[in-house]
Amino acid sequence: MSIHLMVVAAYLPDDVVTQGQKLALMKICDSADDETRLSKPGLRRLRAWVGVTEKRCMTIVTELVAKGLIERVEVGKSGRRAVYRVFPLGVPPIPSNDDLDARFKEADAAPKNSRKARTGVTRAAPSKPAMTHEDIDARALAAGEGVKEAGFHEWNPAEDKGRVPPVEPSGFHGGNPEGSTDGTPSFPPSSSVLPFPPTPTADAAGEPTGGCSRHPVPAANCRACGTNPRAGRAARERDRAEAERNAQQEWLREYQKDLAMARRVAQERPEDVEAARLAARQAARQGREKSRETPPPPKF
After folding, report:
1. Can you give the residue ranges of every domain in the chain?
2. 211 backbone φψ class: left, alpha, beta (φ>0; ψ -120 to 50)
3. Mind listing the pLDDT tens digit for each residue in 241-269?
4. What is the dihedral of CA 73, 8, 47, 50, to 10 degrees?
5. What CATH architecture applies to the domain 3-86?
6. CA atoms of 243 and 166, how far apart (whole Å)
7. Digit-coded pLDDT (tens) for 116-140
8. Burial label, 17 (beta-carbon count in 10 A; 0-12, 13-18, 19+)
9. Per-residue pLDDT tens for 67-117?
10. How far apart are CA 243 and CA 26, in angstroms?
């Protein structure tokens, strides 16, 4: 393991190696010897370090060889790892803080797309973010957007604009109009003869239209007592399904009880079971013989 070589590989600039190439080179340096700079990382470890496929890992190693950062000493075979020499042209120095600052400053000043870079043009410094509404109004005034001064708007606009009347209303209206009873306005009474409006589905199929029939004295409708024919039908359907399910469970319990009794009898008296089986076979055989002796019906 060579920490020095791995640190040197970690500080290589971006224009020399990509991220995948840097990871592969750091793994090869991690497995290298300090004196000979020979490394046997192994394809499995190298692939796990970089996080790529086997074919892509071999391609990255070939790219590092083409850039002169490593060289192959021995080619790997089945059961034998390949041997690489790290930095065959010389080990680069570890950059200082000043070198890193100069590198980053140059990278930040470089255009993002060199094909669209404008030479000889000085870029303006980015403006400070607006902190208050006064900053926004001041920028709009400087841009010539017609803002009179920074701050809130004036009160009501001029009368010729017609947006808001220049004066406040004199008061509320003058009371009830002529011909009214000076009383509180109300809605017209209901046209229904019942004390409450009927349900929306009172005339549906199966629901009474003359009121609720579940009382000694029929009520005007089901809302008078809280009952509902539809809810009653749903409750009866639930009771019927529950009774059917209970009957099925009872039959299943009886069947299991009979089955358990038959198994117990078969275990206690196997001779009776064998005799019943022989009797059933003999009865079936007699039935087949009888069907053979019976002449077929005449054909017309």
Report:
1. 3-86, 232-293
2. left
3. 999 999 999 988 888 888 888 788 777 88
4. -150
5. Orthogonal Bundle (1.10)
6. 79
7. 666 666 666 666 776 777 777 787 7
8. buried
9. 889 998 888 887 888 899 998 888 888 888 888 888 888 887 777 776 666
10. 77
Q: What is the pLDDT of residue 56?
A: 92
Strands 38-39 and 70-74: unpaired
Which tokens in the block code for residue 45? 């470890």
Say what the pTM is. Answer: 0.39
How large a percentage of the chain has pLDDT more than 70? 64
Residue 113 CA to its chain's centroid (Å)? 37
| Pair 9, 29: CB distance under 8 Å | yes
User: Is the alpha carbon torsion for 159, 165, 168, 170 positive or negative?
Assistant: positive
